[in-house]
Amino acid sequence: DMEHVLLNLFSLVRDAVVYVQKNEGKLSTTISRLCGHAQQRQYRSANYPEDLFIDKKVLKVTHMEQEETLSSRRRELITKLKSHSSFYSNLPEYICKHSSAVQNNTLCWNGQEVMERY
């Protein structure tokens, strides 16, 4: 049932964002303790030969990839969750006001409770 999935999705995302915001220090410590330092990762891009021949000229290819660490990936996740929190918090009200899925029903979920459709 789509409504049931959406009801649970909002609360799960909201709870996850709130938990990460409240426990950022504790999560950092726990993740660092459990995972330690991230190992050097292999390059994700295709491997090129050291020398590329273009128009009979040699072009040196340099591999420059920013080192990924667990800490930087954690910060990236927290930033993305924060940037999307307003979307998920406004989604139920938007659906209740604009969605054709609720037009045949006078009750609608506004993100907090089921109430009369606007």
From TrEMBL:
UniProt key word Isomerase: no
Keyword Nucleotidyltransferase on entry: no
Chief location bin: membrane
GO biological process: cell migration; positive regulation of canonical Wnt signaling pathway; regulation of protein localization to membrane
Location relative to the cell: Cell membrane
Membrane topology category: Lipid-anchor; GPI-anchor
Listed transmembrane segments: none
Domain of life: Eukaryota
Keyword annotations of the record: Cell membrane, Disulfide bond, Glycoprotein, GPI-anchor, Heparan sulfate, Lipoprotein, Membrane, Proteoglycan, Signal
Entry-linked InterPro entries: Glypican
PANTHER family: GLYPICAN (PTHR10822), GLYPICAN-3 (PTHR10822:SF4)
Family label: Belongs to the glypican family.
Its biological purpose: Cell surface proteoglycan.
The protein, known as: Glypican-3
Species of the source: Hypotaenidia okinawae
